[in-house]
TrEMBL record:
InterPro entries: FAD-dep_OxRdtase, FAD/NAD-bd_sf. This is FAD dependent oxidoreductase domain-containing protein. Signal peptide: none annotated. The lineage of its organism: Bacteria, Bacillati, Bacillota, Bacilli, Bacillales. Residues 8-359 form the FAD dependent oxidoreductase domain. Keywords: Oxidoreductase.
C-alpha cells in the first residue's frame, strides 16, 4: 500500500494494536485509526507482567524477539515516562525439562541471540538473595528484562497521538464491510469506517469478531494471574525469572516490590463468544496466593511474611501449534491479524507491530514470518481443536 491517501483501521488498542499504529505512522502510511471497545489497554496488556526474553522455541520467534529487544531499548529513549528494565531474563529448568531446551541452543547461536547456561552455584553467586535447588539449571538471556505496562501503554498511546494516529475509545467494532471479496472497512457501534486495510488485534476476542467475516482461527484463551507484594524490607537485585519448575515466574517491581505469576494447569480454557465480554468478570481462587508462597518461598526466602498488595487477572491466547498468528488472512484480502502470542504478547508487541505495519505498507516483512501465517492450519484440524474444551495444561506450554 504505502500511499499517502490510504486509510488503515486497527481493531484493538492493546500493545499489539498501538504498536502497529506507531509503526504505520512512523512510515507515513496515510491515515490511521485505532478502535477499542474500552479505553486503551483494557485487554490483557494492562495486566501483563511485561517480561521478555529472546530465547524461544522457533527461528521466527527468536528473530522477532531480537527485534523487540532492540525496539524496547529505542522506545525507552523515545517515549516519555517509559523505561525498559534491562535486568536480564533467567529461565529455570530441572533435569527433566532441560534436555528439550538444550536442543535449542544451536538455534540461539545461529540466530545470534546471546545466552549463558548457569549451574546452581553460579546462580547463587550472581544472585545471592535466591536459593535455587542444586538440580536447577539456568538459561540466562543477558538482553532480557521487563516493562511496566502502566508506564508503557499510556506512553505508547501518547506517542501514537503525537504522530497523528486517531485513537477512538469506547467504540466497539461489530463487523466488516466486504466489497468484491475484499475488506473495505469496518462497522462499529457508531457507524461505518471505510478503510483500505483492517488489522485485527483484538486478542481474546478474535474469533468472536472474525466470525462476522466467516473466519475461524484455531486460538484458545486461558485465564492467567499475577500478584505484587508490598515493598520488601530490602529490594532484591534479581533478573526477571521464568521458573517453570516452580509453576510460575518472578520479577522485581517498582518500589522494592516483587511481582509473581502462577500457572493454573487444571483450570479449563476460557471461552470468549461475545464481543461485550470484559476481563473484569474473571475470577481466581484466593488460595492461589498461598500456593504461590508455598512454591516460591524456598527459592525467594525474603517472601516469608510479606503481604500481597495487588492482583491482576487477564487472558492469554494460544494457537493450535503454540506459535503466534501474524499476517494477512488469505480468504479475505485487506484483513490482517495479530493474535495467539502465548504468554508473550507484551514481549512480542514492538516486533509484531512492526511486522504488521510492514505487511500493510508493502506486503513484505524484514524477516520471514511464514511460520506465523494465519493460513498455515488445516481447516478440519482447526475445527476439531476449537470444538474440544481443554484444561490449561493441554494448551501448548510457552512462557514469555
Ligand atoms: C497476568 C498476565 C501476565 C502476563 N505476563 C506477560 C509477560 O510477562 N510477558 C509477555 O510478553 N506477555 C505477558 N502476558 C500476555 C500479554 O498480556 C498479552 O499477550 C498482550 O497484552 C496481548 O496484547 P494485545 O494488544 O494483542 O491484546 P489486548 O491487550 O488484550 O488488547 C486487545 C484489545 O482489543 C479490544 N477489543 C476487543 N474486542 C474489540 C472490538 N470488537 N472492537 C474494538 N476493540 C476490541 C479490547 O478492549 C482490548 O483492549 C501476560 C498476560 C496476563 C493476563
Amino acid at each position: 500500500m504505502g500511499l499517502m491517501g490510504s486509510k488503515t483501521v486497527i481493531l484493538g488498542g492493546g500493545v499489539t494494536g498501538l504498536s502497529t499504529a506507531y509503526h504505520l505512522a512512523r512510515k507515513g502510511c496515510g491515515s490511521i485509526v485505532v478502535l477499542d471497545k474500552g479505553p486503551v489497554g483494557d485487554g490483557s496488556s494492562s495486566r501483563a507482567a511485561g517480561i521478555i526474553t529472546a530465547l524461544l522455541w522457533s527461528e521466527t520467534g527468536v528473530l522477532a524477539r531480537k527485534i523487540s529487544l532492540q525496539l524496547f531499548r529505542e522506545l525507552s529513549e523515545e517515549l516519555d515516562g517509559y523505561t525498559f528494565q534491562a535486568v536480564g531474563a533467567l529461565n529455570l529448568f530441572d533435569p527433566q525439562s532441560w534436555p528439550e531446551r538444550e536442543r535449542l541452543l544451536p538455534l540461539y547461536r545461529r540466530c545470534g541471540a546471546p545466552f549463558e547456561v548457569l549451574d546452581a552455584d553460579e546462580m547463587r553467586r550472581r544472585w545471592p538473595q535466591l536459593q535455587p535447588r542444586d538440580e536447577f539449571i539456568g538459561l540466562y538471556d543477558p538482553l532480557g528484562g521487563y516493562s511496566e505496562p502502566d508506564e508503557y501503554v499510556p506512553a505508547l498511546a501518547r506517542r501514537c497521538r503525537e504522530l497523528g494516529v486517531e485513537i477512538r475509545e469506547h467504540e466497539p467494532a461489530t463487523g466488516f464491510v466486504v466489497r468484491s471479496g475484499k475488506v473495505a472497512g469496518v462497522r462499529t457501534a457508531r457507524g461505518t469506517i471505510e478503510a483500505d486495510a483492517v488489522v485485527s488485534t483484538v486478542y481474546a476476542w478474535t474469533n468472536a469478531l472474525l466470525a462476522e467475516a466467516g473466519i475461524r482461527l484455531p486460538v484458545k484463551a486461558v485465564v492467567h494471574q499475577r500478584y505484587v507484594t508490598q515493598p520488601l524490607a530490602a529490594p532484591l537485585a534479581i533478573p526477571a525469572i521464568n521458573a517453570d519448575p516452580l509453576g510460575g515466574y518472578v520479577r522485581p517491581a517498582a518500589g522494592g516490590r516483587l511481582l509473581f505469576g502462577i500457572e493454573t494447569a487444571e483450570r479449563e480454557e476460557q471461552r470468549v463468544t461475545e464481543l461485550s465480554y470484559h476481563l473484569s468478570s474473571l475470577e481466581a481462587p484466593e488460595s492461589l496466593k498461598e500456593d504461590l508462597r508455598r512454591s516460591f518461598t524456598p527459592y525467594v526466602p525474603q517472601l516469608t511474611g510479606v503481604e500481597w498488595e495487588e492482583r491482576r487477572l487477564g487472558l492469554l491466547t494460544f494457537s493450535m501449534d503454540g506459535e503466534p498468528i501474524v499476517g494477512p488472512v488469505g480468504g479475505l484480502p485487506g484483513l490482517y491479524v495479530g493474535v495467539a502470542f502465548h504468554s508473550g504478547g507484551f514481549a512480542y508487541n514492538p516486533a509484531a507491530g512492526l511486522l504488521l505495519a510492514e505487511l500493510v505498507e508493502s506486503g513484505r516483512t524484514g524477516i520471514d514470518i511464514g511460520a506465523f501465517s494465519p493460513d498455515r492450519f488445516d481447516p478440519a484440524e482447526a475445527d476439531a481443536y476449537l470444538a474440544e474444551t481443554v484444561k490449561q495444561k493441554h494448551v501448548a506450554r510457552r512462557r514469555h
